[in-house]
Amino acid sequence: MRWWKAVGLAGAAGVVATGVVVVQAERRRRAYTPEQVRDQLHERLARAQSVLEVVDDETPAPPRRFDIRGQLRRLRRR
């Protein structure tokens, strides 16, 4: 068997394997009911908000001042 045939067969096998993985992931995703998805999203939102509250309580943001030179530098780089 020539080397290019082996490379072609390996490529085809890779495409098939990728397709199998995508189909399995899609089946898992569609297995959730809308209520389950909504509950998971609410859970993630609550976790994210609690993390933000902890971060906000611990480290106050430094005061920002307007820097015209920095703004001009950024504009020139674009």
Summarize the entry for a quick read.
The protein is flat. It is mainly α.
Write the layout of secondary structure elements.
Blueprint: H1 3-30, H2 34-58, H3 68-77
Report on the structure:
This protein is an all-alpha fold and 78 residues long. Helix content is 81%, strand content 0%. It contains three helices and no strands. The longest helix has 28 residues, at 3-30. It is flat and about 70 Å long.
Give the uncertain stretches in residue-range form: none
Instruction: Give the tally of β-strands.
Output: 0
Strand content: under 5%
Q: In terms of structural class, how would the helical and strand content be classed?
A: mainly alpha
- Mean pLDDT equals 84
Secondary structure tally, helices: 3
The run of helices and strands is HHH
Our measurement of the CA-to-CA distance between the termini, rounded to an integer number of angstroms, reads 53 Å
Shape: flat
The quaternary organization reads as: single chain
Largest sheet at a glance?
Answer: none
Helix content: over 70%
Rg, alpha carbons: 25 Å
